[in-house]
Amino acid sequence: MNSQEALDFAKERLSRISHLLEKSDTPCKSFYEKQEEMLTQAVLAMKEQAEKEKEPKPLTLEELKQRDGKPVWVEGETSLGVPGNYWALLMAKGTSRPAALNVKGAYNFSNYGKTWLAYDKEPVSK
């Protein structure tokens, strides 16, 4: 069972329990209320996990500037036209040419969004 199937199952069970609770004469009502509460929390946790597993979105230039001294996943071409997908270290402060740097070269901020993009984690589909 994958996470989407588990989420669908939990939602379906939650729907059934909610339907039972609508009936005022449901035996063991407190038992079903506790199950409803637990399933609601499980569904919320699974939704949160599913969001974390989604493909990362490219960082904005502002987000990129705030990651000075930290690694980012870069995709595209260096300033010298060398293509590739690599981890790079950001150097944004204390330099006249902010860039993401790795052994293949520099990814200058002036070309961000044109020839390269950066992510906080490596995309899954790559």
Number of domains: 2
Work out the strand percent: 15-25%
Helix content: 25-40%
Number of strands: 5
Structural class: alpha+beta
Shape: rod-shaped
Spatial sequence of strands, sheet with the most strands: 4-3-2-1-5
pLDDT average, as an integer?
82
What is the straight-line distance between the termini? 24 Å
Contiguous uncertain segments of 5+ residues: none
Main β-sheet, in a few words? 5 strands, antiparallel
What is the number of helical segments per DSSP (H or I, 4+ residues)?
Answer: 3
Taking Cα atoms only, what radius of gyration do you get, to the nearest Å?
A: 24 Å
Taken in chain order, the helices and strands follow as HHHEEEEE
In short:
This protein is an alpha+beta fold.
Give a description of the structure.
The chain is of the alpha+beta class and 126 residues long. The protein has 3 helices and 5 strands, in the order H-H-H-E-E-E-E-E. The protein has a 5-stranded antiparallel sheet, with no helix packed on it. A hairpin with a 2-residue loop joins strand 3 and strand 4. The longest helix is centred in the first third of the chain and has 25 residues, at 29-53. The two termini are 24 Å apart. The relative contact order is 0.14.
